[in-house]
Every structure is written in structure tokens, then in C-alpha cells.
Design a protein that fits this description.
The chain is built from 14 helices and 15 strands. By secondary structure, the chain is an alpha/beta fold. The protein is globular. The two termini are 14 Å apart.
Length: 421
């Protein structure tokens, strides 16, 4: 992948010597303050998010939606246009009064992409996403998990090669950066997979390794947090004041966002629910206890139970879904029971966090209405309406990886785009 030159938007000057309170500074020589930089970043984010959500949209409407002055909106839109993030829409809209028609602006999704890497237990998904979070290209790369002969560094190197191959398939696309997502304990700030027991990864410096291979900015996060950001930006949870996301695959974890902020906790350990106890559980966990949430609900357990029942022969959980689609009653029972258990687990989290919206990524719920009904029954009638399946049923892993980078872009669009360019 092409190496890009990083640059900064501006460099604050060194502050002059302090002055006494009785000698206020001249307003003609303001000192850059952290609050000023935060305000600029927040304003830029609000404007680009408004274009994402409402575009094509007039600048005057953006000013009304964000509470910013028309002059500020015009200035930021000019910068975004220069950077190639937005463009003027082809057809002006009548102003409704005297003067020239409004020329609305919209995202320019024709230039830039972000790379997405999601490492699951049996395979890696690499993808390119446009600025609207849509998958432009995607590829699945098999690996051997904890027994992969090349270890995590080989898995990441092959992921970088896969991204380069996808970029070759989409000529003219310019990558802004790479997002990486995985289950387990992922520390966003250090860019490290601290621990992923099912993969056998410990203290893997993903950001440094992928950055060295791609020459691009790399952003790292856990996949449940990545998906809650994707739901807020591009999915059904857009506009919700608080969102809980529950991911149920081979790894089971959760993420919670409120007031547009995802809770990470110290060293990004929030959302680890693998060892929550499941009443009536029968599976023995690696921790030595019986009935931990992840071992009860994981796809590995589903496949083992399906093999024991003669439903499938392999380890692919989609084969259980396929068997249910042909009318296999045992497959249907396994999927519906699992979805109901997921609903009861979600109910526990609902009682603690009380979110406005709950999004569940779970294979049966994605593919079958009876599983969605079982999920909502497990949650309970009083909160069932708040529960919805993932907005990305056909591309959830690709979206998870790419959304890590897109979330960073929409939080700090001027700095991120200038650095990448």
C-alpha cells in the first residue's frame, strides 16, 4: 500500500511569559488553548456529521442543525471541499425567498476509502469502505487461529497484503487510514491486542505492525465498540442518546455508548462479559466455572451441539442456519434456544445500563424471524421494542474494521484527512 506523508493542521506557538491578572492580554494576540482546539474539532465534527446524516443539505440548514454561525459553517465547508470530503450537489435548491438558490453540499464518496481489518477466530476479513460506511470491496483470508504457524505477525502481514490487493481492484481510491477490530481485550490507546485467548494473542502491537506494513495511519479497537460506533454513524441507532451493542459469535462481548461517547474504561477493558454467569448453564469454561456466558453462547458450542444432534458434521455455524432453512427441527430448536438465552443476557445488561436502543449481532437473529422473536421474548415485553438486529447483516465484520477508522475521521475530520493526504 502507498506510504503517505503525515502533516499536521497547525502548530500552536509557544506561549509568552505569564502576565499578571491586572494586565490582560491584548485581544489581537490570542494564545491557542486546548479548549480552542477542542472547540474547532467539535465544530468540524458536527458539520461533517450533519452532511453525512442530512446531505445534500444547505449550509443554512447545517447552521440551524448545529447551532454554529453561518460564517463558521461556510468556512468549514470550504475546508472540507478543499480536502475532498464534501462537494456541492449538482442541482441548486430554491432559497424560498429573495436571492440566489441554495447550493447544497453532500459527502464526496468518490475519492476516499478506509481499510478495514477484522480478525475472527477462523479467518481475517479485509475490506475497503467509503465515507458512508458502505463496503466497496471485501475479502476473507483463512488462518489457523492459535495454531497459525506464522503467529499474529503473519496474520497481520497477510491482512496488509490483502488490503493492498483490494486497493489495486479499486483504482483511483485514496486510503485515509486503516481500522482494526477484534474480540478479546483490545486497548485502543496503545493500539494493542492485550489478550485474545481464543487466538492465543497476547500484547500484540497491532497498530505498529499494520502501520509498518501499510504506511498508513492505523486505529485499533474492540469489535463490539467498533460496531456500536458504526450503528451510531450509519445504522439504525443514529440519533439514539444511548446504545448498547451485544456481539455474540465465538467471542461474546458488549459495548455501551451514551451522549455520542463509547465507554472504554481503564485500558479499554469495558464490555468484557464473557464470564457473566448464566443460570442453568451446563458448559464448563476454561476459567474452571460452569455456565459462563461466552462458553454457553459461543458459536463453537452451537456447532458442537449441532454435531451431537446430527445436524451438521463440521464447525461452520452457518451450516446450522442452512439446515434450519430446510426445515431441520433440531437446527431450529438450537438456534431459537440460543437466541432466547442471548435475550436473557441482554436483559441483565438492560437492567444495569438502561439504554435507549439495544443492537444485537447474533447469527440466528440476523437470519431468522423466529430467533428475533425469541431474543425479544428473552428481553421481556416491556423492553422488546428497543431491541434490534445489526444494521449490517451481510457485512458486519468488514464494517467493524472500517468503522474504527471512520469514527476517528468523523470525530476529527480536518486533522485526520490532512494527515492522511
Amino acid at each position: 500500500m502507498p506510504r503517505t506523508a503525515a502533516s499536521t493542521l497547525s502548530s500552536p506557538s509557544s506561549p509568552p511569559s505569564p502576565s499578571s491578572p491586572s494586565s490582560p492580554r491584548s485581544p489581537s494576540s490570542p494564545i491557542p488553548r486546548i479548549a480552542d482546539r477542542d472547540r474547532r474539532r467539535t465544530s468540524a465534527s458536527a458539520i461533517l456529521r450533519s452532511v453525512l446524516e442530512h446531505g445534500p443539505v444547505a449550509r443554512s440548514t447545517i447552521a440551524r442543525l448545529t447551532g454554529l454561525s453561518p460564517a463558521s459553517v461556510t468556512d468549514y465547508c470550504a475546508r472540507f471541499t478543499e480536502l475532498g470530503l464534501i462537494r456541492e450537489a449538482a442541482t441548486p435548491r430554491p432559497s424560498g425567498g429573495v436571492g440566489r438558490p441554495h447550493v447544497p453540499v453532500d459527502l464526496d464518496d468518490s475519492r476516499f476509502v478506509v481499510g478495514g481489518v477484522h480478525v475472527a477466530v477462523p479467518h481475517t476479513t479485509v475490506a475497503l469502505l467509503d465515507l458512508r460506511g458502505r463496503v466497496v470491496a471485501e475479502r476473507e483470508l483463512k488462518h489457523s487461529g492459535a495454531t497459525d504457524p506464522y503467529g499474529p505477525y503473519g496474520v497481520l502481514a497477510r491482512a496488509a497484503d490483502g488490503l493492498a490487493a483490494l486497493l489495486d481492484e479499486v483504482p483511483g481510491s485514496r486510503p485515509l487510514g486503516v481500522g482494526f477490530a477484534a474480540g478479546g481485550w483490545v486497548d485502543r490507546d496503545s493500539g494493542t491486542v492485550v489478550e485474545h485467548p481464543l487466538l492465543g494473542w497476547r500484547e500484540v502491537p497491532v497498530r505498529d505492525v499494520l502501520g509498518a506494513h501499510t504506511g498508513l495511519p492505523v486505529h485499533v479497537d474492540g469489535h463490539a465498540r467498533a460496531l456500536v460506533n458504526a450503528e451510531r454513524l450509519f445504522g439504525r441507532a443514529r440519533g439514539s442518546r444511548s446504545v448498547l451493542h451485544l456481539f455474540v459469535g465465538n467471542v461474546v462481548d458488549a459495548a455501551f455508548a451514551t451522549n455520542d461517547e463509547v465507554h472504554h474504561g481503564p485500558r479499554s477493558q469495558a464490555g468484557s462479559i464473557a464470564h457473566l454467569p448464566v443460570p442453568g448453564g451446563t458448559e464448563t469454561c476454561d476459567c474452571g466455572r460452569v455456565g459462563c456466558l461466552q462458553v454457553e453462547l459461543s458459536e463453537r458450542t452451537l456447532c458442537r451441539r449441532a454435531r451431537d444432534a446430527g445436524v451438521i458434521e463440521g464447525v461452520n455455524p452457518l451450516h446450522v442456519v442452512a439446515a434450519a432453512a430446510t426445515g431441520d427441527r433440531e437446527a431450529v430448536r438450537l438456534l431459537v434456544e440460543r437466541a432466547g438465552a442471548v435475550g436473557r443476557a441482554a436483559r441483565l445488561l438492560l437492567d444495569v445500563l438502561n439504554p435507549e436502543t439495544v443492537v444485537v449481532t447474533e447469527m440466528g437473529v440476523v437470519h431468522r424471524e423466529d430467533c428475533l422473536a425469541a431474543l425479544r421474548a428473552g428481553v421481556g415485553d416491556d423492553r422488546a421494542a428497543a431491541v434490534t438486529p445489526t444494521s449490517f447483516p451481510d457485512s458486519v465484520l468488514a464494517v467493524a474494521g472500517g468503522s474504527v477508522a471512520l469514527d476517528v475521521l468523523y470525530r476529527d475530520p480536518l486533522t485526520v484527512s490532512r494527515e492522511a493526504i
